[in-house]
Each structure stands twice: as structure tokens, then as C-alpha cells.
Amino acid sequence: MTRVQVEFDSDVFATLRRSPEEVAREIRLAAAVIWYAQGRVSQGRAAELAGVSRAEFLDALSESGVSASQETLEDLGELDIHRSWEYRSQASRGSRQKPSQETELKGNEKLDTPGKRAARRTVDPLAG
Fold it and tell me: Residue 49 and residue 29: Cα distance in Å, rounded?
């Protein structure tokens, strides 16, 4: 293992109210958080580098205000484009139809949650 040495004036430890060992742990964790935020390492690898469990690393991300997800809006947009392409490809082969983006509703019908994508008729108990 390669060792990296950082030198501080001794008054830094008194100012931080931390021992040199505690400061070293904090520096390792801070570096791992930064590298994760930059997308240079995964959560698991960052936790290993910091010498903490993944759960402890997730807590550190939260305390640092760093998102636990490395997905960007651009990545999510590409995912939507990819899914759209998959549906079209499957529909052209006849194996699956792409669900319509808009469902025409009539009468007392309403759309269920987006995940279900099903129309259902609501019943009015006061209707005669």
C-alpha cells in the first residue's frame, strides 16, 4: 500500500479538537466524498477508500449535502430516449406495443397511477 503524508502545524489539531488519527480519518472520508461527487469512484469503492461501511458512507454523503445518486438529468433523458427506442423496436417486431402517451378518457373514467397505466371506471354511489 502506498502511503501519503500530509503535514499540519500542531495547533491545527487543537483548533479542530481532533487527534491526528481523527483528522486522518476525516481527510480520507472527505476525499472519498469528493471523488464520489465527481463521479470518479462508485459508492462501494469510495466507502472502501474511506475505511467505512457503505451505510456510513451514505450518511457522510447526506451530511455533506452530496447526492447519493450519480445520475444526471441528461443521463435520465438518455434513458427515456433509450426506452422509447426499445418500445418502438419491439412494436415493429410485433412482440409488444408501445403504451400510448395520452389516454383518451370518457365519462367517469380516470387514469390510475402512471406505473399501472390502466384506465378504470369510477362508480358514483349516489347515481341512480
Answer: 8
